[in-house]
Design brief:
The protein has 131 residues and is mainly β. It has one domain. The protein is built from one helix and ten strands. The strands form four sheets. The chain has a four-stranded antiparallel beta sheet with strand order 2-1-10-9, with no helix packed on it. The radius of gyration is 16 Å and the shape is elongated.
């Protein structure tokens, strides 16, 4: 069984984030999924594509380290600004391409420099099968 394709408005969650974030997709490929721009594995740019996740709980995040040091060692979460230097990792072999990039499926993951793993919790695409 294939995984749903992801489109603009998908809800994301980072393993170190305190709140869900959203996926923004700039419609450069001009392909729509259920009326929204379809995502590719390249839609991984912090802020432009991947929105913040509330407060970051990662002890590897430099802003968390600085805030914790300023509070004399009391762990202090700071705003979670994703640091995603590479594209999404597909959940399986790519079956659809948009332009020259594989389409983003709901099983894909994205790695943050601060140790978090970002997953798609709601792909923003709903398919209805008609009997």
């Amino acid at each position: 069984m294939s995984s749903p394709q992801v489109c603009a408005g998908a809800m994301l969650q980072c393993s170190f984030g305190g709140a869900p974030g959203a996926l923004n997709v700039i419609p450069v490929n001009r392909v729509l999924v259920g009326g929204a721009p379809a995502a590719t594995i390249a839609d991984s740019i912090p802020i432009a594509n991947v929105t913040p996740f509330g407060l970051c709980q990662s002890a590897a995040n430099p802003t968390v380290i600085a805030a914790t040091a300023a509070k004399l060692g009391v762990f202090t979460p700071m705003p979670c600004l994703p640091a995603t230097p590479s594209p999404w990792i597909p959940g399986g072999p790519p079956t659809v391409t948009l332009g020259a990039m594989p389409a983003l499926d709901a099983e894909a993951t994205l790695v943050c420099l601060w140790g978090g793993v970002i997953k798609i919790v709601q792909p923003a695409q709903v398919s209805t099968l008609i009997p």
